Amino acid sequence: MFHLVFGLPWLVVVLRFLMPLPWVWSIKIAVAVILLIASQYHLVSRISSGSVFSPEFPRALVIAFNVLFGAIVMLAVFQIALDIVSLGVALVNRSFPSVLPEVRYAMGIVALGLASFAVSQAIRVPPLKNVEIAIPNLPSAFEGYRILQLTDLHISRLFPKSWAEEVVKRSNALQPDMTLVTGDFIDGSLEARRADIAPIAALQARDGVLAIPGNHEYYFGYDGWMKHDAGMGIRMLLNQHAVIERGGDKIVVAGLTDLAAFGANLPRPDLDKALNGAPAGVPIILMEHQPRLAKRSAAKGVALQLSGHTHGGMVRGLDLLVARANDGYVSGVYQVGDMQLYVNNGTALWPGFALRLGRPSELTLITLRRAR
Fold first, then answer.
1. What is the pTM of this model?
2. Mean pLDDT, to the nearest integer, of 29-44?
3. How many angstroms separate the Cα of 53 from the Cα of each of 79, 271, 282, 323, 350?
4. Where are the domains of the chain?
5. I need a labelling partner for 153 at 20 to 30 A (CA). Which of 172, 199, 339, 353 fits?
């Protein structure tokens, strides 16, 4: 069913865009076959790599698949819009208007251009985004405290070692007080990604690098990845917390396992366990990969929740659907009761849909302020 759904845009493009063009049949068939293969990118990945989450093709081929797949989806949307307009004209004039081939050529060029731009925005090393969060009763020693949030790195053939090295270089140049990685480090097995993820060990911050798993860690050997990440000097908070001290002041940073654990017979996210033994009256910053249970976190007294997972919705318009699957939280700052939630657009995203239009990736520097 998954692969059939992704084949529907191809069907629209072939029947309503390609077939009316004044081309010889051999060319139409050849183009249709190429587009069919591109539309089944995830099936090809599954057959050749064993997983739709980790295409193990050369990076250039992963990029080409995403460009063509994105162009098919956009062209299908354009064609449906054209058909709706044509239907409206037909209702008025009682005959369907003829569409010049040049109109379809223009649609194809725009769709391919937009898809190429969207992929380029998705695979770049993200620009810096500065965010200020005001927290009630923030201890004075933590006024101006700077947290770098990385999330949804999805280190893979699309985001390889060279990309990770540049992310680490830019991250360390910011000299954050603390770096938090809120899940989805990788796409791929430990054997496949060992070299690509190695640069992450060089992340530096005054109070250390703390992290949690995302749902993708559960798809590629959760236990092995947790041990490997910890071995890189990253403190994994698996339903645990850390107390950060400056002088006599403190804040608590807690982390949860991911909701994907429910289907994997692994430790499920447990906020009560994570906060057990935490000092009372201290602001709590919670790392939770998926944002949809933010109301529960607010009810437990969390001051700030940092999440990812949604990739910001990736494309304007599509973000409305992504929000529905995440209790309305998709990108940016939300006030949830007395808690603030920040949903990060992601440092990278899943290689299976590597397009961004209007929802840019981000290297996120969060500065804490005391609410007045």
1. 0.95
2. 95
3. 29, 28, 39, 21, 7
4. 2-122, 127-370
5. 339
